[in-house]
Design brief:
Elements (H helix, E strand, L loop, with lengths): L4 H10 L3 E4 L5 E4 L1 H5 L11 H4 E5 L6 H6 L5 E5 L6 E8 L6 E6 L4 H8 L11 H37 L8 E2 H13 L4 E9 L1 H8 L1 H17 L6 E4 L4 E7 L4 H15 L3 E3 L2 E3 L2 E9 L7 H17 L5 E3 L2 H5 L6
Parallel strand pairs: 7-9, 13-14
Antiparallel strand pairs: 1-2, 1-6, 3-4, 4-5, 5-6, 8-10, 8-13, 9-10, 11-12
Helix pairs in contact: 8-9
Organism: Shimia isoporae
Protein name: Diguanylate cyclase (GGDEF)-like protein
GO molecular function, one term: catalytic activity
Length: about 325
C-alpha cells in the first residue's frame, strides 16, 4: 500500500506525532507536532535512530531491528537537548519495507508543553493529553487564585497585626507592641537600654489650647523620638503623654545620656498650632538590661519609671539613670 498525500494529511490530524520510515529507517515524513521538537532542522531525510535514542528494547541499531519491535512499547528520547522522553509503537507498512511509528510524551507531557510551547491544537482532538492539559490549566488557575488569595489574606493579617500594635495618632508602637517586644528581648538575653519619657506641662496645653493642639504636640514628640532612634530600636507611646524607647544593643550610659539630652532639647522646641505656640518639656528615666536572665519586663519598666520621677523631682527637663538607692529614698512627687 502506497501512502498518498491525502493519507499523510489524515495522519497529521489523527497522529500529529507520527513518523513514516523507509526501508532503511530514514524518516520520509514527520507529523507537525513532532517536527516542533526540532525547530532548527527538518526531520524528513534524517535516520530515525540518529534523531532518537531507543533505550528499550535495547541493542536496536538498524531498521531490521526496529521492524522486530513491531507492536511493542518503545522507550525513546531525543538525542539533542532537551532530551525529552518519548513513548512509541511501530507498525510495518503493508507491502512495503518501511514502517509507521506513532510517538507520545507519556509522563513527560508537562515538561514538553513548556519546553516546546505546545498547546491543545498540537494534539489530536481525541487525545487524552488534551484532557490532561485542561486539568493542568484548571489546576494552575486554581493554584494561582489560591496564591493570590493567600497573599491578600496574609497582607490583611499583617496589616491588622500592625494596626493592633500601632498608636493611631503618632504612628509609633503602642503598649501592646511593647509588651510583645520586651519579654522576647529579655528571654533572648538581648542587651538594651530602656528610656521612659514623660512630657512636662502637657496638661496645660490640652486645657488651654484644646486637644487638637495637644495632638500636634504629641506628633511633634513622636517625630523627635523616631529621629533620635534607629530602625532596630523600638519607640512606643504607652499612655497619653508617656513614651518608651528601647535601644537594641545600646547599654553605654554616656551614649544613652547624650540621646536623652538631645530628646529633651528637641522636645522643648515650641510647636506652632494655628495662631498659638505650644511649649512642653520632657523628663526622662533610664534603665539598662545587660542581657542576664535575672530580671523581667515589669522590673525594668519600674526602674525606668523610678528614674523618671527622680528627674521630675529634680526640676523636670532632665534625665536620671536608675540607681537602686532611688528606691530607698521613697516615692517622689511628680
Amino acid at each position: 500500500m502506497t501512502v498518498t498525500d491525502d493519507m499523510l494529511h489524515m495522519l497529521d490530524v489523527l497522529c500529529p506525532m507520527h513518523v513514516q520510515l523507509d526501508g532503511q529507517g530514514v524518516i520520509t515524513h514527520a507529523g507537525p507536532t513532532l517536527q516542533k521538537l526540532y525547530p532548527d532542522m527538518s526531520l524528513a531525510g534524517q535516520p530515525f535512530l540518529t534523531v532518537f535514542e531507543l533505550s528499550r528494547p535495547k541493542r536496536i541499531t538498524d531498521m531490521d531491528g526496529l521492524i522486530r519491535t513491531a507492536g511493542q512499547k518503545l522507550h525513546l528520547r531525543k538525542r539533542t537537548a532537551p532530551q525529552t522522553g518519548l513513548k512509541g509503537v511501530l507498525v510495518p507498512m503493508p507491502s512495503e519495507n518501511g514502517a509507521m511509528v506513532n510517538l507520545g510524551f507519556g509522563i513527560s507531557i508537562l515538561d514538553a508543553v513548556s519546553d516546546y510551547d505546545l498547546n491543545a491544537a498540537d494534539f489530536a482532538a481525541t487525545d487524552l493529553t488534551i484532557e490532561m492539559l485542561y486539568l493542568v490549566e484548571a489546576k494552575s488557575a486554581a493554584m494561582e487564585a489560591s496564591r493570590k488569595l493567600n497573599l491578600r489574606l496574609q497582607g490583611a493579617m499583617i496589616a491588622a497585626e500592625e494596626q493592633a500594635f500601632t498608636d493611631t495618632l503618632t504612628g509609633l508602637k503602642n503598649r501592646r507592641a511593647l509588651e510583645h517586644i520586651l519579654p522576647r528581648m529579655v528571654n533572648d538575653c538581648t542587651a538594651f537600654g530602656l528610656m521612659q519619657v514623660d512630657l512636662d506641662f502637657f496638661k496645660e496645653v490640652n486645657d488651654t489650647r484644646g486637644h487638637a493642639a495637644g495632638d500636634a504636640v504629641l506628633q511633634h514628640v513622636a517625630r523627635v523620638l523616631v529621629e533620635s532612634s534607629r530602625e532596630e530600636d523600638c519607640v512606643a507611646r504607652v499612655g497619653g503623654d508617656e513614651f518608651v524607647l528601647v535601644f537594641n544593643g545600646t547599654t553605654d550610659l554616656d551614649i544613652l545620656g547624650r540621646i536623652a539630652d538631645r530628646i529633651i532639647s528637641e522636645i522643648e522646641t515650641p510647636v506652632p498650632f494655628q495662631d498659638a505656640i505650644c511649649k512642653v518639656s520632657a523628663s526622662v528615666g533610664i534603665s539598662v538590661y545587660q542581657g542576664s536572665n535575672d530580671t523581667d519586663m515589669d522590673t525594668l519598666l519600674a526602674e525606668a519609671d523610678t528614674a523618671l520621677y527622680a528627674s521630675k523631682h529634680a526640676g523636670r527637663s532632665t534625665y536620671t539613670v536608675f540607681d537602686p538607692q532611688l528606691k530607698e529614698s521613697g516615692p517622689l512627687a511628680s
